[in-house]
Amino acid sequence: MKRDIYNNLIKWKSSEIRKPLILRGARQTGKTYILKEFGQNEYENVHYFNFEENPELAHFFERDLDPKRILSDLSVYCKQTIKAENDLIIFDEIQVSNKALNSLKYFCESANEYHIASAGSLLGIKLSSPGSFPVGKVNFLNLFPLTFFEFLDAINESRYRKILENITSFDSLQQAFHEDLIRILCKYYFIGGMPEVVKHYANTSNYTEVRQLQKDIIDSYILDFTKHAPVHDIPKLSLIWDSIPSHLAKDNKKFIFSSLKQGARAREYENALIWLNDTGLIYKVTAIENSQFPLKQYAIRTCFKIYYLDIGLLGAMVKIPIEATIQNVRLFNEYKGSFVENYVVQQLTAIMNQNMYYWRSKNAKAEVDFLSEINGQIYPLEAKAGINPKSRSLKSYADKFSPPCLIRTTLLNFKKNGNIRNIPLYAISLLPKLIQ
């Protein structure tokens, strides 16, 4: 399956400042698949080592972290000579062995002629721990579920992706194309971007089996809670995970710890929330009151919203019926527009690879769905489900901060109206390009 990250892997291979690579991403987003495909296509040989499937691999890193000795032992283990530059070494589920993770420092310093790519479903947890590896000795890439543009490639609709990527202005798209893209977007809302699910749909067009695969993925995530999370956090993880749809069903969608159960306090659940965020299972969108660059410095840490990593999994969690895929307006408006917001967060996080924020006024009477930092400027973005969007909040933000322009993403076609720019939901990935 074609993934956009492949081009970044090509750049990594040829980079003059290449270091051992760490590919981060939630479980089942396709990390192993893309690394193996990259290795098979771009190198003479691929040497694959999975620390979770083969725990004995950790022993090769116990004596010392000398790269030449480790490579010699691994060559014997896999019965193949590992060659510099021509071969790709993949360390999968590397978080299982902290010493293997630390060895990347020495590969960088003493054996950087070898190409090493590592991955792991729970790497975010390991890397958030103190002393897990020396900073500055690795390159990072992040892999997310398929974006809508990648989805178009996967279901043989690349023609539409080419049309969209050639757009350089806010001139309306041909109406027939616009309506067809909304129809396809509705499918994406149900199917989502998990690679296994998308591949199965592309091969079978079976929505019932798509939903079953989504449930299986959700079950595997819950199993991860019990296998890998701290014991005292397991019940808290489940409470937070299951509560996300009910939070998104509210008007302001703000995550409130006390709604988890009677007497729940933020300090009791904060570690569990961090665990979910570090594993890539959720997107956290934090509130801002004073819109200044950089947004991170003005975030209100105690005020935020939470979305699932994939819109298809959101649909499975709330049991959206298959019939909704042919009832466009209904699907886009479900859960007070939460599907639209979850979709936008998912697309922009993958495209821009940055934390997301939203603006609320100090009196909490006005709120703009998202703020995006692009080339040192801050742009307000409203995400609306319908075709008659009106937003007093967007006007309030404009009056207060005078942004370069106002952005809406809706079911409407491309349109420029004064200082307002409308980007169709199916094209929100073009936001950075169109703003420039």
Task: Summarize the structure in words.
This protein is α/β, with parallel strands linked by helices and 436 residues long. It folds into two domains: 5-142, 3-Layer(aba) Sandwich (Rossmann fold), CATH 3.40.50; 148-435, no CATH class. The chain has helices at residues 5-14, 31-42, 67-78, 98-110, 123-127, 148-154, 158-165, 175-191, 195-204, 207-228, 234-248, 266-278, 311-317, 328-352, 392-401, 431-435; strands at 21-24, 45-50, 87-92, 115-119, 139-142, 282-288, 299-308, 356-360, 367-374, 377-383, 406-410, 415-417, 420-424. An eight-stranded mixed sheet has the order 7-6-8-9-10-11-13-12. It has a five-stranded parallel sheet with strand order 2-3-4-1-5, with helices on one face. Strand 9 (367-374) and strand 10 (377-383) form a beta hairpin.
Tell me the layout of helices and strands.
Layout: H1 5-14, E1 21-24, H2 31-42, E2 45-50, H3 67-78, E3 87-92, H4 98-110, E4 115-119, H5 123-127, E5 139-142, H6 148-154, H7 158-165, H8 175-191, H9 195-204, H10 207-228, H11 234-248, H12 266-278, E6 282-288, E7 299-308, H13 311-317, H14 328-352, E8 356-360, E9 367-374, E10 377-383, H15 392-401, E11 406-410, E12 415-417, E13 420-424, H16 431-435
Helix pairs in contact: 1-2, 6-7, 8-13, 8-14, 9-10, 10-13, 11-12
